[in-house]
Design a protein that fits this description.
It is built from four helices and no strands. The chain is mainly α. It has a domain of about 70 residues.
């Protein structure tokens, strides 16, 4: 493996730094919301995905999955392995629930 593998060259921005920079304004807006709004909103999306007709369910599960994956990606370097496993478990549960719902 080259010495520069996994590292960016001076002046180059990594994918992670680009995602973090692009996410910063939205994260600041989310941080300003009431603390329980995000988990309740995620549960509402999962409920919509579980109990509504197919097109709406697919959209709701997709939004919930993308949101959880985005937050997991941003938090990945800062959380211990237990937190990483919890995020992966949440994504796996969303995929499993959608799979059961759409079969």
């Amino acid at each position: 493996m080259p010495a520069s593998a996994g590292r960016s060259l001076p002046g180059q921005r990594t994918l992670r730094s680009q995602v973090e920079s692009a996410s910063r304004p939205l994260l600041l807006r989310l941080h300003a919301l009431p603390r329980l709004l995000i988990p309740i909103g995620t549960l509402v999306l999962i409920g919509i995905g579980a109990f509504t007709p197919m097109p709406y369910a697919l959209i709701a599960f997709g939004i919930a999955f993308v949101f959880v994956a985005w937050i997991a990606y941003l938090a990945w370097p800062a959380v211990p392995w237990s937190g990483r496993l919890m995020r992966l478990a949440m994504l796996a549960l969303l995929v499993a629930l959608a799979g059961v719902r759409f079969r």
